[in-house]
Amino acid sequence: TLPRPGRWDLRIVVESPQLEDVLDVPELPVFATRGDLPEAELESGDGIAFLKEQQWQTPGFRTVFAERGSLPEGIDVPGEIAPAAGRYAEISAPVAGLVDADTASRAPAPGQRVEKGDVLAVLTPALGESGSAVAAARAELREAEHDYERAKRLLEVEAVPERRVDEARIRLDAAREAIAGFTGGGNVASDGRIRLRAPITGVVAQRSLSPGSRVAAGEKLFAIVDASTVWLRAHVPAAEAPRIAADAGATFTLEGGGASGETSRTIAVGSMVDPATRSVPVLYEVANPEGGIKIGAHARVSVRTGDVDEGVVIPDSALLEEDGRPVAYVQPEGELFERREVVVGARAAGQVLIRSGISPGERVVTGAAYQVRLASLST
User: Fold this and answer.
1) Contact (Cβ atoms closer than 8 angstroms) between residue 266 and residue 249
2) How far is CA 178 from the centre of its chain?
3) What value does the mean pLDDT of the chain take?
4) Alpha helices per DSSP H over the chain
């Protein structure tokens, strides 16, 4: 009980089996009557009311102090995810023919994983077109194999010179190359049908064939992609291209607030300016062991220049995007929050540099910031 109005130093002593603590509240203002109380700040319409009881019951709610620091400087540019070299393959019909109905019904569907060498489909060449050439090539291969084996037997008994075996081997190699040219990496069975096999290990991205359908030579039937490693292609404005540091790397965020990460290494920096976009392509390698980064996705890329950017540093999780503008929420008092539009600089390792909008020492909401935004919209 306080005997009179004024400013008091309050000390709260907590003693229990779980803990002992002392809380000091200096300069506590005390008023004689309720009418003497000043108008509460929350009733003035400034700020967002988000009570302690709400904070305690909001999963993941937390705050940190904004600190002055530095991050590697970057240039924000658009980009997209592309398959890495050697990790994308298209399987086309090597000759015109009919798709075997039984194997087509068991062919892998999009999204299904296949191993290198797996049979994807079986094709029966159409006679009268390139199919007749396949038959002729098969006949030539069988004849070349027979001739080669005969030449080796004759050489063993010294009935022919070694040159005769070399000639038979050359003919056999040529016949095998001719068959390989028709099958497109598949193999011809004894009945003349062509088995189309997966050239790489990966996931089927596209399948376009129907059981019993007729396909033309060169028609694409499958596409396979191995997305465990992908490429990130960034488009840097020509005016900014000289500032790029080839070994500095980049960070990226996928479209729609999706996954974000950092590149593994720089593959290449383009040496020509695209005449249509007036930009220079920069290619990065990105590890994607979980497959969360999808081929074709668009991204916002921060291409590092090698310089260092200084300012106020906060966690990247503190930023929200509202109406296309980055915002953050700060906590000037225990139950009072403010919405701040910020100007964003460099990003690196889960941190973001703020050029304006937040001062060092201010407490920033890093967890459940969206819940504070909802509180600002509540009536």
Assistant:
1) yes
2) 41
3) 85
4) 52-57, 101-105, 130-156, 162-183, 369-377
Q: Check residue 376 and report its DSSP letter.
A: H
Q: H or E element: which one contains 251? A: strand 250-254
66 three-class SS: coil
| CB-based contact 175:147 (threshold 8 Å) | no
Q: What tokens appear for 160 in the block? A: 């022919």
d(CA 347, CA 355): 12
| Residue 193, both tokens | 């049908």
* Rounded Cα gap, residues 180 and 348, in angstroms: 49
β-bridge pairing 187-188 and 194-197 = antiparallel
Q: CA distances (Å), 63 to each of 49, 122, 124, 310, 317, in order? A: 16, 61, 67, 22, 11
CA-nearest of 268, 279, 263, 271 to 230 is: 263
What residues have CB less than 8 Å from 300, skipping those under 6 apart? 76, 77, 78, 79, 252, 253, 255
With a threshold of 0.85, does the pTM exceed it? no
**In the prediction, which pLDDT does 187 show?**
63
Give the pLDDT confidence score for residue 44 in this predicted structure.
43
**In which residue ranges of the chain is pLDDT below 70?**
40-46, 127-138, 179-192, 257-258, 379
Q: At 170, is the secondary structure helix, strand, or coil?
A: helix
Q: Are the beta carbons of 123 and 131 closer than 8 angstroms?
A: no
Distance between CA atoms of residues 280 and 269, nearest Å: 8
**What does DSSP assign to residue 366?**
E
